[in-house]
Sequence to fold (225 residues):
Amino acid sequence: MQLTRTQFEEELEGLRNQLLEMGSHAGQMIEMAMQALARRDVSLAESVIAADDQIDNLDVEIEAECIRLIALQQPLARDLRLIGTALKVITDLERIGDHAVDIAKVARKLAISGEAELVDFAPMVGAVRRMLRDALEAFVKHDLSLTGKVIQTDDEVDDLFHVIRTELHEAMKREPKLVVQASYLLFVAHYLERVADHLVNIAERVHFVETGVQPQLAKSHRTVS
Fold:
């Protein structure tokens, strides 16, 4: 049965709320994973790994809801952009959750080895946190200025990644016994950089929902896996 316009708008609002829930959950997973790394907390790392099931379930639920909405109603152009964007955003959020799990697994391994921290991830984590906040707020408030902030902060994350990579390479050269630990931490920096790239994708898709124009906000050479 086809929904009335009012009912359909309520359904779309519910879809937005589901996306926000998924985004919040992905952000919490990243925070917990980095805390597990800093504290060398195996239990917390295991909690992050277990939490991946919830984000996977949200991915499936939101996808099913998008398909249901398309089937129930012939969406207007903007509505269709929103639903199509939701299908893409959940993929980015699910992969952010995967990267949180990757970091948690590194945290678990380094906790078992009992090795100390070599670099400070706090500035990079803080920048990623701001990107997530701005991307989700842009989605809720239809604020295109925030999508630009996400792109600017991504440049900051890239710069911090290069700084951390240089520090870890220097540590490897200085102390060969640190090569294994530094290699694991280099993976962490790479995962955070990838999280930032997924958040850029989300910002681009918010821009598309609001304008109908596919922006060229990200660097042309950027790829996300």
In short: The chain has one domain: 5-211.
